[in-house]
Amino acid sequence: MTEANLAVNFFVALFALIDPIGNVPLFAAATLGAAAAGRRMVAVYIGLFMAAFLVFFYFTGVGLLAFFGISMPAFRIAGGIILFILGLDMVRDDFTTMFADAAEGIEGQTPRAYAKQRFERLIVPFAMPLLIGPGSISTVIIYAAEAKDFGAAGMGIGVGVIAAVSLVTVLTFWASPLISKLLGRIGMSIVVRVLGLILCALAVQFVLVGVADATRGLIKNDAKAPYAESHK
User: Against a cut of 0.85, is the pTM above it?
Assistant: First the structure.
């Protein structure tokens, strides 16, 4: 795997898991009735929280695995199973009704006061575990292990990917009124399900790699790394 492949694969996996486009209806429902400035500030708070939390696990996750005596193949398999379950839920279910509560107590508040109050209520369950859940944490730790082969450059790539996904999430939430209007309910449902399907496929790949690393000859190399030859 090259550095470019690492960056692309990590971004796709994390983007599909966090699913900012699919979460637009949830964010819109959670900030219903808010002024544009207040809504944007809530999105910034969520993006900063997400970036800080994921970067923390990016640098400490491998050490935590070593402390608990968990091998990387075992963590890959466990993470793949979690990702598959989450992806399956995205394919089958409609999450928009979970956050259909109207914003309350927003009249007379400044954008900063409103954003602080709303963010405190959205930490759970919107920021965690919907955006940052076991799946995204597992993905960050797995790719942190991959990045160690590239040294400081690889770790920098990982931080850049996390920052990029966080920024895209903030910008997507800023554009939530426009995206919701353009895609409509059917379009949003299609986006959620397509990203869920991609996530399921990535999850199966995690399991294949984990089993291949933990065994000898059980998984063929072309199944573990199907596009490795094309990058040589």
Answer: no
